[in-house]
Design a protein that fits this description.
Catalytic activity: glutaryl-CoA + oxidized [electron-transfer flavoprotein] + 2 H(+) = (2E)-butenoyl-CoA + reduced [electron-transfer flavoprotein] + CO2
Order of helices and strands: HHHHHHEEEEEEEHEEHHHH
Family: Belongs to the acyl-CoA dehydrogenase family.
Largest sheet: 4 strands, antiparallel
CATH superfamily of the largest domain: Butyryl-CoA Dehydrogenase, subunit A, domain 3
Distance between the termini: 42 Å
Structural class: alpha+beta
Number of strands: 9
CATH class of the largest domain: Mainly Alpha
Shape: globular
Keywords: FAD, Flavoprotein, Oxidoreductase, Transit peptide
Number of helices: 11
Protein name: glutaryl-CoA dehydrogenase (ETF)
Strand order of the largest sheet: 2-3-7-6
Cofactor: FAD
Strand content: 5-15%
Number of domains: 3
Length: 392
């Protein structure tokens, strides 16, 4: 693998951070790269990797206690970057499991809920999903129509969710619903009567991953199914910020792998009696890619250091999600042009990465949403319609 390091980025990492990078990179090289083109072509998520990812220590790796890794934010980001160099779908699995489902329980659950679910999720014995987005409620979750009403000591849940990662293979779902008291979060075992998860197909992106529609019809839950610390949209947003942080790192992996594929090809592809890497226009493309990757790494590392210091702000996460994802998709597309017609073959990764990044660009906040988050921070005026009295 040819990794651009124009600024000696490695020197900014600690020994532990480099060790995490090397360990996850080795896993990707041996367990993902040889098979990913086939998984993607057949639209298969490799569930056999779940226990191996648990053994690798990346499920909830940034959470403390309850069998979780307790690693630093920077180490988690580096792991996300290396996983996404293999495929966005594999990094997404780790993100949904750890940054969304496990994070929701860790941040907002009772002690009993944490003890019951987190150790098994860290071991990969239980898979979780996170149900916020609805068919008609994406960027505006305050308009969700899923509703939980009290019924004696328990709850009855009705509604629908869409584009929910892992739902059809999950054993527990974190479902966000309107109640008479505002938005609340619920732990829903997926074998509960009335809960149905259906994989979405066909897909042109994230094919080696699982996204589902969920319908909930009179799903009855006990009183202790509610996450006691989750009140208002601030609760799911706190989990989304964990995932967005990981995306800021992860997309660099997709960009770097695309760059590597293009550089390797350009050095060996002979046209007009010389490698195409010798042509000025090809070199300009490669230089532009390498520079953007270096910039993205520095942005991600800055956020990681702030997060580890307890000083990371939501608008700063939006910088990385917006800028790094935008750069990554441009790099993947440009890398494909260097490969020419061969670039549409599954033997090469850039077009697969570009297709995946179309999804990554959309989920956990579109470009438009993150632009307006930053616009509100810069100007002091929010362009969003705020309807959540408990705070978003």
């Amino acid at each position: 693998m040819t990794v651009p390091d124009l600024l000696d980025f490695d020197e900014l990492l600690t020994e532990d951070e480099r060790a995490t990078r090397d360990r996850v990179r080795a896993f990707v090289d041996t367990r993902i790269r040889p098979h990913i083109a086939d998984w993607y072509d057949r639209a298969v998520f490799p569930t056999e990797l779940v226990p191996e990812l648990a053994e690798l220590g990346v499920l909830g790796m940034h959470l403390d206690g309850y069998g979780c890794g307790g690693r630093s934010a920077v180490e988690y980001g580096i792991a996300a970057m290396e996983l996404e160099a293999g495929d966005s779908g594999l990094r997404t699995f780790v993100s949904v499991q750890g940054s969304l489902a496990m994070s929701a329980i860790h941040k907002h659950g009772s002690e009993e809920q944490k003890q019951e679910w987190l150790p098994r999720m860290a071991r990969g014995e239980v898979i979780g999903c996170f149900g916020l987005t609805e068919p008609n409620s994406g960027s505006d979750p305050s308009s969700m129509t899923t509703f939980a009403r009290r019924d004696g000591d328990g709850w009855v849940l009705n509604g629908a969710k869409r584009w929910i990662g892992l739902a059809s293979i999950a054993q527990v779902a974190i479902i966000w619903a309107q109640t008479d008291e505002g938005v609340r979060g619920f732990l829903v075992p997926t074998d509960t009567a009335g809960f149905v998860a259906t994989p979405i197909a066909p897909k042109l992106s994230m094919r080696a991953s699982i996204q589902c529609d969920i319908t909930m019809t009179d799903v009855r839950l006990p009183a202790d199914a509610r996450l006691p610390g989750a009140r208002g949209l601030r609760a799911p947003f706190s989990c989304l910020n964990e995932a967005r942080y990981g995306i800021g790192w992860g997309v660099i992996g997709a960009a770097r792998d695309s760059y590597d594929a293009a550089l390797t090809y350009a050095r060996s592809r002979i046209q007009f009696n010389q490698p195409i890497a010798a042509f000025q226009l090809t070199q300009q493309k490669l230089v532009d890619m390498a520079v953007e990757i270096e910039k993205a790494q520095l942005v991600a590392l800055r956020l990681g250091r702030l997060k580890d210091a307890g000083r990371l702000e939501p608008h700063q996460i939006s910088v990385a999600k917006l800028s790094n994802t935008r750069a990554a998709i441009a790099i993947a597309r440009e890398a494909r042009t260097i490969l020419g017609g061969n670039g549409i073959s599954g033997d090469h990764s850039p077009l697969r990465h570009a297709a995946n990044l179309e999804s990554v660009r959309t989920y956990e906040g579109t470009d438009e949403v993150h632009t307006l988050v930053l616009g509100a921070h810069i100007t002091g005026f929010s362009a969003f319609r705020s309807t959540d009295s408990e705070g978003a």
